[in-house]
Give the backbone structure.
Amino acid sequence: MGTIWFCIVAVMLAAYVVLDGFDLGAGIIYLVVAKTSADRQRIHKAIGPVWDGNEVWLLAAGGTLYFAFPQLYASGFSGFYLPLMIVLWLLMLRAIGLEFGHHIENPVWQGFLDVVFSVSSILLAIFFGAALGNVIRGVPLNQDGYFFLALWTNFKVSALPGILDWYTIMAGVVALVTLTVHGALYIAVKTEAELSLRARAVAVVLWPLQFFLTCSSLAATYFIRPQLMNNYENHPIGLLIPLLVFASLGVMIWAGPKGKEKLAFVASGTYITAMLVGAVFALYPVVLPSSGDPANSLTIANSLAGEHGLRVGLVWWSLGMTLAVGYFVFLYRMFRGKVRLEEPGY
Amino acid sequence: MDSALLVHRLHFAFTVTFHYLFPQLTMGLAPLIVVLKTLALRHNNPRYDEAARFWAKIFGINFVLGVVTGIPMEFQFGTNWSHFSRYAGGVIGQTLAMEGVFSFFLESAFLGLFLYGAKRLSPRAHWWSAMAVCIGAWLSGFFIVATDAWMQHPVGFAPSPRGGLQLASFWELMLNPWAWWQYAHTMCGAVVTGAFVMVSTGAFYLLWGKWTEHAKLFVKVGVIAGVLASVVQLYPTGDGQGRLVALDQPVTLAAMEALFTGQPGAPLVILGQPNVQEKKIDNPLVVPEMLSFLTYKRWHAHIDGLDAFPKDQWPDNIPLLYYSYHIMVGLGTIFIAEMLLAGLLLWNGSLYRARWMLWILMLSLPFPYIANTAGWMTAELGRQPWLVYGLMRTADGYSKLVSAANGWFTLLGFFGIYTLLGILFLFMLRRTIEQGPEGEVSHPSLTAEALTGEGN
C-alpha cells in the first residue's frame, strides 16, 4: 500500500513539473524571444488557458502527499519553511504578472508586469530544482522527525547544510536550463514563423549546456550520496532510467534542428520524467533522507497514514483522477494547434 | 500566550480571512450565474447572456484571487501547523486531498472553457460548463467545511500505532452532522454575499442611469436570491448550527453569549461589553429569557454559564468571540429586514424607482463580507483553546521548530503581498464594473484580453 501511494505521489509531482514546467519555461524565455507586442500576446495565448490547470497539479499532489504521508508533509513543509513561503510569493507574483498585464493599457506598467512574470518564473524554476536537490542530499532530521533549515549556511554539503549549498544550487541551475528548453520547445510548437524559430534557437543553444549539466549533476549526486547507487546495484533494471534520460536527450538534439519540435518537446517531457523517476527510484523506500544519522530518515513505513484511510483513498483517487484526466484531454483538445491572434476567442 | 503560538495563529488567521473574501463570492455567484445562463437558454433575449458574461468576468477575477490566496492555506497546514498535521493528517488528509482531486481540476478546467469557450461550445454545452464550475466550487466548499467540522467535532477516528490519529470510518467523517449544518450555513452565507453584490451593482447602475435593463435583472435576481438566502441563513441553518454548539460545545455557547453565570430563563444580550474580570456585562441591553427559548425552545430552560466549566476550557478571547458572534447575528437580522423590504418593493413594482432603497442596497455591499468573516471568527475563536475539539490544544499544534522571528518574517511578507493583491483586485473590479455588462469589451487589445485575461 505504501509503495502504491509513493508511486502515485511521484507521478502527480512529475505531471506537475512536466505541465507547469513549460509555463515556467515560457516565462523564462519570454523577455528574450518576444520582440513585439504581438509576440507577447502569442505567448500569453499559448499558456493562458492552461497554466492555472497545470498549477492545480501542484495542489493536488500536495493534498495527496498530505493524505498519504502526513508525517512527511509535516516535517518537510515546516523544515523547508522559508523557501516554501518564498515559492508561494513567487507563484502569486507570476499569477499577477501573467493575468494582470493585459488589463493595464499603460505600456510602462505592462512592461513592468512582463518583467515580474519572467523573473518570478526564473526564480521558481531555480527553487524547485533546489528543493529536489535538498531531498536528494538529505536534511538534518532530529529523532522526532523534524528539522528546520536556514536558507544558507556556508554553502557546503555537510551534516548541517542550508537550503542553498553548491549541490542544491547546481540542481537549481539544472532545473532552470531544463525548464527553459522545455518551455522554448513548447512555444516553438505552439507558435509560427519568427517567434517559433527564435524559441527553437534558444533550445538549440542550450542543449550542450543541458547535456553537460546532466552528466555533472549525476556525478555530483554520486559524489555526495554514494549510497543512492544501492537500489541500482540491487535492481539493475533501474539502469534503464538513466538510459532513457540520455536517449531522450539524444532525441531532442536530433529532432530539434530538423524542425520536428513536437517530437523534441515530447522528448523533453520524457527527459524530465526520467530524471525525476531516477531520483525517486534511488531514494525508495526513503522519502526524506537524514543528512546526519540515517536512523532518523523518513521512510514510507514511518510516515504513512493509516491502512483504512489509504484503502478508501484508492477508490476515490482512481475515480477522481480518471475524471481529471478526462477534463484535461478535453481542455487541451479544445485549445490544440498553433495559436493565432486573428482568431477571435477560443 | 507564547509569542511563537501567537504569530502562527495570526499567520493563519490573517491569510485565511483575506482568502475567504474571494471564495465566498465565487461560491455565492456560481448558482446565480447558472440561473442567468438558464434564463438565457429559455428566453431568446441577449440580455441574459450579456448579464451572465458580465458576472462570469467578476467571477473570474475573484476565482484567480481565490486560487492564489488559497495555495498558502494548504501549505500552512505543514509549514506552520506541522504538529497538528502529524497528529490529525491521517484523518483530514482525506477531505483535503479530495478537494484537490475532485474540485480543483473540475473548476480550473471548466472555468477556462466557460470564460473562453462561448464561441466554440454550443449554448447547451456552455451552460454545462457553467454548471461544472458551480459544482466544483460547491464541492470545494464542502471538503473544506468538512475538515473544519472535524476539528470542531472529531468523529470517525482511532489512535494510530505510529502516534496521532488515523481514519476509522470514512462515512462517519463524511456524514459528520457538524459538517452538514456548517456546510449549509456557510454556503447560504456565500449566497447572501453573491446576492448582495449582484443587487448592489444593479442598484449602482440604476442610480447612475446606465445599463438600466441589465441593472433591473441584477436587482431582481439578486433580491429574490437574497430574500431566500438571508431567511434560510437564520432558520433552519443558523438555528441548527447553534443547537450543535449548545449540545457539543456548551462552554463556547456561554462564551459567545458572555453568560458568566448559569441560570434558568437566561437572557439574550443584544448590546453590551463583556467584562471578563468582573464576570458581567457592562451597559447591558437584554431580552429576558430569550436565550433559553432560542436554545431549548423553553422559556425557563437552564443554560450553563461559564462558571460551570473549568477556566482552562474557556475560549481564550471571550470579548472578540462575543463581538464576532453578535456582529454576525446582528447583521444577519438586518439583512433579512432589508431584503424583505426590497422584495416587497420589487413585488409591487416600485423598487427600480425607489432611489432611497437603491442607495441602501448599493451601500450594503461590505456588510455580508463582514458578517461572513464574523461568522468564521465565531466558529474558530469558539473552538479555542482546542485545535481539535477535546483532543489537541492549539498550543500543541504549531510547528515548534519554526521560530516566532521566522513567523513574523513571512507574516509581514504576506501583509505586503496581500496589500498589493488587494489594490490590483479593486482596480480590476472597478474597471470591470465601469465598463458595464453590455456587449463585448471594445478596446484595442481585445483579442489578447479575451484569450488570456479575465481571470483564468
About this structure: Chain A has a mean pLDDT of 86.
